Amino acid sequence: MLTTILWFIVVGAVVGALARLIVPGRNPIGILLTILVGIVGAILGGVVADALGAGTLVAIVFSVVIAALGVAALTSFNSRGRGGRGWGARRHTH
Question: Considering 25, 58, 84, 90, which has the largest number of Cβ atoms within 10 A of its Cβ?
C-alpha cells in the first residue's frame, strides 16, 4: 500500500510539473502549488479507483486524469480571480 501511495505521489508531481510546462504564458500559481495539487489529485484518484475495485493500471490512469483536472481547474479559477481570461470571461470591445 505504501508503494502505491508513493507511485501516486510521483505521478502527481510529474503531472503537476508537466502542466506547468505545457500551459503557455504567465501562470497565476507557483510551481510548488501546481505540483502539490497534482499530488493531491493523483492520491485522490488512486484512492477512488481502489475503492471501486479497479486494477493497478486503471488506478494509475484515473490518478493521472484527476490530477490533470485538478491542476487545470485551479489554474483556470485562479486566473479568473486575478483579472485573467478564465472560463466565461467577457470580451470587452471598444
Answer: 84
Please name the residues in contact with 7: beta carbons below 8 A apart, sequence gap of 6 or more: 60
Give the whole-angstrom CA distance, residue 76 versus residue 78. Answer: 5
Q: Tens of pLDDT along the chain (94 residues)?
A: 688 788 888 888 888 888 777 766 666 677 788 888 888 888 888 888 888 888 878 888 888 888 888 887 877 765 555 554 544 455 555 5
C-alpha cell at 57: 493500471
Nearest partner of 11 among 48, 54, 59, judged by Cα: 59
Tell me which DSSP letter residue 93 carries. Answer: -
- Distances in Å between the Cα of 29 and the Cα atoms of 16, 32, 51, 75 are 11, 8, 31, 7
User: 38: which 3 cell numbers?
Assistant: 497534482
Closest CA to 21 of 94, 71, 76, 79: 71
